[in-house]
Amino acid sequence: MALRSTTRDATVAFERKIRALPEVLQCHCVAGDTDFVLVICARSLPEYQLFAQQQLGEALQLRSYSSDIVLSTSKFTTEFPLSADAWPPTASAT
């Protein structure tokens, strides 16, 4: 998602609106061509389409947004498996 304006006020307003939407599971501020990446949950594509039409775009003052649909997941974890003594990683000799 790319905001029309990236002023502090616009960003805070966007984040406040996003936090109020139960369909949004995650919201990440990112660097690059877009400003935010959202993870949204919907039961079906028509339900997602309705959500996008009603809650995104004009409602959130977006310049643009695009959607990627997850077809399958090869790996998903929230575990951070590094201990303090394992960071930074070192090259292993083989």
Biggest sheet, open or closed, and with what strands and sense? 2 strands, antiparallel
Rounded mean pLDDT is: 88
Name the shape in a single word: extended
What is the H-and-E element order? EHEEHE
Q: Give the percentage of residues in beta strands.
A: 15-25%
Structural class: alpha+beta
Percent of residues in helices comes to 10-25%
Number of helices: 2
Describe the structure.
The chain has helices at 8-19, 45-55; strands at residues 2-3, 24-29, 36-40, 62-64. It has 94 residues and is α+β, with helices and mostly antiparallel strands. The chain has a two-stranded antiparallel ribbon. A hairpin with a 6-residue loop joins β2 (24-29) and β3. The model has no long low-confidence stretch (mean pLDDT 88).
